[in-house]
Amino acid sequence: MYLYNEFDQxxxxxxxxxxRDQTTRYLNGELTEEQFRPLRLMNGLYIQTHAxxxxxxxxxxxxxxxxLRMLAHISHKYDKDYGHFTTxxxxxxxxxxxxxxxxxxxxxxxxxxxxxxxxxxxIRNTTSDPLAGVCADxxxxxxxxxxxxxxxxxxxxxxxxxxxxxxxxxxxxxxxRAATQVHDIGLHVKKDEAGQVGFEVLVGGGLGRTPVxxxxxxxxxxxxxxxxxxxxxxxxxxxxxxxxxxxxxxxxILVRETGLDTFKEQVEQEWAxxxxxxxxxxxxxxxxxxxxFTPLNYETANDEALEQHLANSGAFRQWFQQNTKAHKQAGxxxxxxxxxxxxxxxxxxxNVQMERVADLADQFSFGQIRxxxxxxxxxxxxKSSDLYALWQQLTAQKLATANIGxxxxxxxxxxxxxxxxxxxxxxxxxxxxxxxxTDSAIDTGNISLKMSGCMNGCxxxxxxxxxxxxxxxxxxQWYQLTLGGSDSHQSKLGERLGxxxxxDDVVDAIDDIVHVYKANRTDNEDxxxxxxxxxxxxxxxxxxxxx
Amino acid sequence: MTxxxxxxxxxxxxxxxxxxxxxxxxxxxxDLDYWNANKDALIASKAPLGLLVQGDTxxxxxxxxxQHFELIAINFPSFVxxxxxxxxxxxxxxxxxxxxxxxxxxxxxxxxxxxxxxxFDALELSTKExxxxxxxKLNEFSVFYQAAAN
Lengths: 547, 150
Ligand code: HEM
Ligand code: SF4
Description:
heterodimer, A: alpha+beta, Sulfite Reductase Hemoprotein, domain 2, Sulfite Reductase Hemoprotein, domain 1, six-stranded mixed beta sheet, 18 helices, B: alpha/beta, 8 strands, binds protoporphyrin IX containing FE, binds iron/sulfur cluster
């Protein structure tokens, strides 16, 4: 993985001191609340219902065991012994004290981490495929490009006061595991006919109040032009994006109001004047970063011991089938660590669990951990013969719930319990669904369920196969259901099922939906295909006739 | 007002044209309307001239006349409005403007460094203290991932 050189380290250290001074001046009354706000946001500090919330970047979802131990340490020393993994592969701490945040940042800097631009109207952490570098269908490892983008976007002087936040995701495989179509910019690694690496560029995707699927603005941009093209898009957005209404300030609205063709013309005009300037990447630039992502030292291994264990243990078999994936290297597997156990809010992890996962990464997976946009973790390079031992140890930490991809592996925002914008709670609904489906989840098959406590859509409800959105009806908590969304390489927004549903009926309604699916599916048909074939009506009938 | 130019506090000998539109002898900063209405006379007078624009002013509106201006002042109506950064960068990088580009309006000390990195060589701060703090803030970072505009 990428390692800071002296230059990178100096920058992060200086940032810590800058923020320490800003915090001191704020506490002394030398900076007003309004002036301090963008400064703290650009260091990942929100002010929430109960306390500040600090978001720490995990660049493209890659952590070393040492870094994970530091997150454990921080959660213990400054927070309540747990952290929360987000849908953008980052970690959030829900209870830090504002006064101590500079110390947290210093601790992070000591392990080459930071929270720079993890919120605020600037370029956020670049996200990517959690299986980058290990999946067989990859065209090219996206991580070096993510790192190049990280450096270019970090403390970018021109793009730190954008109309609104700006998110970039990069996928290196045709099968999009980074939700690039719902990002402000989505990049797909491509090769042209000459075998030259480049990117298809999507623009204007996003969730939130107005969910939009991104559109292709350029079918192929050569890798050397990556940064100049991004800069051209950002400059066009910074100049023309709306600033009169924060709900209309994302690039998706600009693209819609300008029209993709005109927007593209503006970008390309801008690009023409900077394309051959300082931002042009040389082979050396790219190779220097690529050298940090060379293949790991895999041993010659096979699946014999694994087959033995699979034959012997049903519980292990179940976990193996649900929570592991093939690896491009023979004799290795990817193992997902579910953070959706029945006893814990989705995405939460305790300091002790973090320590243990760090140990397991050292023991079994080259000391590296990935975070996924489904709020789980992955050890991506586990020898097949070690999987059984890994499973046993995960089980002891309640980290082996065999539910990856199932209905209980849901995405859910903090909702009313922590968030001042919420219309409705989501954690108790999530708990209800977990309780209802824990025993039948695997048999039900993979269904992505996503839930947000309000239309800001932090829980990605609009791209869930089942989406749940909390709405307020005269001070009461109600829930709007949608079906058929997708965050795959063909992202889609879900369709409304019908009227909102009262809180007490939500879990039953989900149960009804699952029943209709199970009653109608053929053989191995997945949820999306069944829905496509039979349409929304049977689901409507069942849910609304019953209540 | 305190003016920082090239990392020093300096005396400001420019005046912004006021509502009565009374010019001083020279070193006037005028806006686009005034320029368009009085262009010929202003050129004839040969007095040093500055132009005040907004962050969202398109360079197309004045770029053909830019040789008449010794200074371009870019106004920040609010410190969170980042358009002026892109405008300054465009003037430096695309149009190779080499004279003074000045940040005016709501400009905070914590922004001084980014402003200078995109091409502002002059910053107008609201008070002496703000000016002194801005000078300190110019040295907050010794390394950058992005090349400076100049
Ligand atoms: C705890 C209080 C939180 C508050 C007040 C909050 C607030 C918001 C707001 C206002 C938006 C809409 C932004 C826009 O449309 O431009 C948003 C979007 C979002 N939030 Fe949160 N959020 C919170 C927690 C979280 C958490 C815990 C996660 C991760 C699990 C999260 C992930 C996201 C994502 C992914 C988006 C959508 C980004 C997009 O529009 O592309 N948020 N949030
Ligand atoms: S979706 Fe709404 S309720 Fe949920 S975290 Fe975001 S802003 Fe809060």
